[in-house]
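Format notes (please read before filing issues)

Several people have asked whether sequences and structure tokens are stored in separate files. They are not. Every record keeps both together, in the order shown below: the sequence lines, then the token lines. Line labels are part of the format and must not be stripped during preprocessing.
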Amino acid sequence: MEEGVPCPAPAAKLTPPVKKSQDMHDERSKLVNEYACRVLELLGMGHRLFVPRLLATSKEDLLQADFEGALKFFRVQLPKRYRAEENARRLMEQACNIKVPTKKLKKYEKEYQAMRENQLQQEDPMDRYKRENRRLQEASMRLEQENDDLAHELVTSKIALRNDLDQAEDKADVLNKELLFTKQRLVETEEEKRKQEEETAQLKEVFRKQLEKAEYEIKKTTAIIAEYKQICSQLSTRLEKQQAASKEELEAVKVRHGLPL
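Then the structure lines:
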């Protein structure tokens, strides 16, 4: 793999005009094949950055295969795998993350530049123009696809925003209804509270008057009871005096008549 042969450029030949969709499909296939050839070209020139990562990513497949299977893997399966742009890009990123001394990188760069200059000198100008044309078409198709994706994303975003707006408006209507209902309940509650406060004030006034009346009755009753107690005390004192006087008078009568005491 140190001295691999670069992928040959497609032969220049004229093709009859076909439909636009078929042309785009053919051009896309050619661009993918060219991209794969570009990856294999870097591998075939003995690029030391890609070989370790390539062997590392294909280790399990190579260990499970015999000699013929390994040859078939490098001849068929490996190019097919890295025709996918994502796989090729991932391989390049992994290879570029390997730390390589600057001197070796410059050496590899000189080898590659020399190989490219040699290829350009041997290449037919018509083939070079076709390749450049294909690259421009690839860029154009990529931009068109990006434009379509952005347009689709824009329409999808507008639809999503419209749905979100509708949901927000529905939720706002529900919240407004709940707010009106709550305000109505608040007014009713405040009115009920006012009535209860008025009833409470009336009850307090009635209880205050009843309390004052009860206090007055208690004072009046207390005064009457005190007066009765005083009268009873006076009557008790008077009765005791009368009893003492009657006893003395009885004793005096008994003494006068000589009766035993």
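For reference, the curators noted about this record: Residues 125-256 form the longest helix (132 residues). Helices lie at 20-44, 50-57, 59-64, 67-81, 85-96, 102-122, 125-256.
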